[in-house]
């Protein structure tokens, strides 16, 4: 009999498993349908011995000291600030997010102050009465030309939708800068786990109270693993048998390649905003990991409608559908819904860890330790 069954061994599941096992001393079984722990952050050595991310590049960044300190128990860190260049159709590379260098290089200008760049943006910007969509966000800030160059094609490829059909939150994630800062993120903590994400996950889950079963789907074992309570980090609609319909997700396919040369591109990620190529970006892991190797491995990302659920699609009707599932989840006793898929939120890794730690605090205040609880499997019978 396990005190807890945790479905999913990504950041949400592993964070809660460790807390419950260590702090509450309760027995936890963690299952994942994939053949590994780590969820989407999983990394592994490829055939050439290069550390790659199977599900695309994952860069850790956070403003939360609590999240950073929590994870620091399980890994050493390598300082890393991610930089992204966008490749224009003519091959020119310019910094992304848009900054002063981007504006100067694209327009043959030599603006030197933030005031001049802000004046340039203002002259280009189009007034928008109410900023509702992802198109409104960009056009009202920097105008239509920069919007079309960097955002329209990229977003259409990434989401299969025009930015005018997407919630403002998508392009709001990407800032526009008037200075020369060419870092992709500006968070106070920007690091990569020194030995990789998978090593960090293994350490988190290495506890006598934790049993890990990979290649194990919940549907196949739900009646055979006795447990009292559950943490669900899979898709919330799947848990409820898709009873209100499927929540839409955007997926990706990855093309991993190894090249017999030391470097492939000047920075960790090069974006391809144009619709003339079907992929959105190419990432080269050695920039992220600091690994020294005579060869280099890269990943192309091709957005797809079908496949693993990666990105909840932020549109009002999807939020409304999620609300229906959320109400069911709230009414389901002894099951805690945590993580990107279970709460249908476009969360980064640090936000998922913060959500899991907050959930643990709620568990601690609502469930007395070692109270036994009811047997969920018996209850289902
Ligand atoms: C391409 C890409 C790049 C990203 N880059 C970054 C980045 O640079 N920085 C950042 O902070 N965040 C990034 N993210 C987001 C990051 O991946 C997520 O925030 C994080 O992995 C979410 O953790 P999670 O535990 O909620 O979900 P997941 O990592 O998805 O883990 C859920 C696990 O549950 C398992 N599961 C689901 N259903 C079942 C079932 N029925 N039975 C058994 N197992 C099940 C799944 O197999 C999965 O392993 C990126 C995401 C993607 C897709």
Structure description:
By secondary structure, this protein is an alpha/beta fold. The protein has three domains: 133 residues, NAD(P)-binding Rossmann-like Domain (Rossmann fold, 3-Layer(aba) Sandwich); 113 residues, no CATH class; 74 residues, no CATH class. It is built from 14 helices and 17 strands. The chain has a seven-stranded mixed beta sheet with strand order 8-7-13-14-15-12-16. Strands 10-2-1-11-17 form a five-stranded parallel beta sheet, with helices on one face. Helix 1 packs parallel to helix 13 and helix 5 packs antiparallel against helix 6. The longest helix has 18 residues. The chain is globular. It binds flavin-adenine dinucleotide. The site of flavin-adenine dinucleotide has 33 residues, from helix 1 and helix 13.
Helix content: 25-40%
Strand tally is: 17
Distance between the termini: 16 Å
Largest sheet, in brief, is:
7 strands, mixed
**CATH topology group of the largest domain:** Rossmann fold
Indicate how many domains the architecture comprises. 3
- What is the oligomeric state here? single chain
Radius of gyration: 22 Å
The percentage of residues in β strands lies in 15-25%
pLDDT below 50 for ≥5 consecutive residues: which ranges?
none
Q: Which class best fits the helix and strand makeup?
A: alpha/beta
CATH class of the largest domain reads: Alpha Beta
Tally of separate helices: 14
The CATH architecture name of the largest domain reads: 3-Layer(aba) Sandwich
**What small molecules are bound in this structure?**
flavin-adenine dinucleotide
Looking across the biggest beta sheet, what order are the strands in?
Answer: 8-7-13-14-15-12-16
Cofactor: FAD
GO molecular function: flavin adenine dinucleotide binding; UDP-galactopyranose mutase activity
Keywords: FAD, Flavoprotein, Isomerase
Domain UDP-galactopyranose mutase C-terminal: 150-346
